[in-house]
Amino acid sequence: MEQYSQQAALSSKKRTPAEYIREHRRIKAAIAGGYLALLTTGIGAAIYRQINTPDECLNSCLSIDHQTSSIRQPSLKGESLVTLPQGPDYPASGLLAPNELPDPPPQPPALKEVKKVKLVAPKSMPRAELKTVVLPYQVNLPKGSNGIDISFPQCSKPLPAHQQYAIIGLNNGVESNTNHCLHHELAWAVGSSATNDKVQLYLNSSNPGPNKNDQWPKSNYDQNGLLTKNSYGNCAGQDTTACYWQYGWERVIDDTKDRFKPAIQDTGLSTDISQYQTWIDVETRNDWQQGSSLALQHNQAIIEGMVSGIESQGARVGIYATDYQWHQIVPEVGSKSVLYALKYWIPGASNLISAEENCQSSPPTAGGEVVMTQYTSSFDYDYRCVA
């Protein structure tokens, strides 16, 4: 406000030609900068009018007589004649004729109309609801997904978080017993972030043989009274390949009926075993027959019986094994075997890089495919090789 008062006082004094020039330049700058308060004072109004009026006003709005060094300065009440001093300090040539005045500053471009959008926040945000959705078996995890597998050794340990999927062992190391914290681990697995295959299962396997084994089958009827389509014929409770196959089938029925279904209750997960990818753990640390081709065939028959038992319930099945350990347990598998074209989950790596490299390893059977690998750190971590 004080700045504008000083400018008004200066405009009322008698000016020298140099002052007029400075005044003119200052007013031009003021007009460009938006100081419109100067437009009502002295020569500022005249120059402003000259710049902003039609061509026919140029000679009447402001007239300068270069012969007498006088200027007619219009005002709001009429014209006033101002005689400019002459002399070497005030040459007439120092004045600007009307046609020598600089062009007016360019007008700013017109502003485009901006549509205003009013954002209205909802009065209350809906609370997130946790739902567990198990999608059909045709949908798989994307390549590069990372998971964790746990079982009875982790029962007393704090479990990690942020896994995309979890693979839970149903047994306590061998196929004939139960992981005693299975319910707790299944409930933990619900927190996996994947939208499909977030919870998977694995079963232990071994070949204890018929001796001192009260679970050895007596016929081709399983615990549910179902007559199985045994790949090796009739089982009569003896040491035959058919009974080894039947033994594998019945261990899967036990895992489903006596372990999985009771433990899955109250977890929010589906009780339908067909909704889960299921793996058979085949490792040399468990009991297997050795020493002859017949012994290896018996081992193969047990694993085939387990695969058939899982598939009979509509579930997907794969094998967890290294190529070396697999061939210590199972002979070369022909294309007619249910083991020939299975998916494989390969352990043995100590870090993620090695696990990724193991995706390129050959599967234990000629028609198989390596779809997942495992590496061990503080937990057993899993890496998805394919979608």
Features:
387 residues; alpha/beta; TIM Barrel; 2 domains; 9 helices; 27% helix; 16% strand; elongated; disordered N terminus
3D structure, described in words:
- This protein is α/β, with parallel strands linked by helices.
- It folds into two domains: 2-100, no CATH class; 146-384, Alpha-Beta Barrel (TIM Barrel), CATH 3.20.20.80.
- Helix content is 27%, strand content 16%.
- The protein contains nine helices and eleven strands.
- It has helices at 2-11, 17-33, 42-51, 58-61, 182-189, 241-264, 293-311, 323-329, 352-358, and strands at residues 63-65, 70-75, 78-83, 146-150, 165-169, 199-204, 277-281, 316-320, 343-349, 369-376, 380-384.
- The strands form two sheets. Strands 4-5-6-7-8-9-10-11 form an eight-stranded mixed beta barrel. Strands 1-2-3 form a three-stranded antiparallel β-sheet.
- A hairpin with a 4-residue loop joins strand 1 and strand 2 (70-75).
- The longest helix has 24 residues, at 241-264.
- The radius of gyration is 47 Å and the shape is elongated.
- The two termini are 73 Å apart.
- The model is unreliable at 1-13, 34-98 and 111-139 (pLDDT under 50).
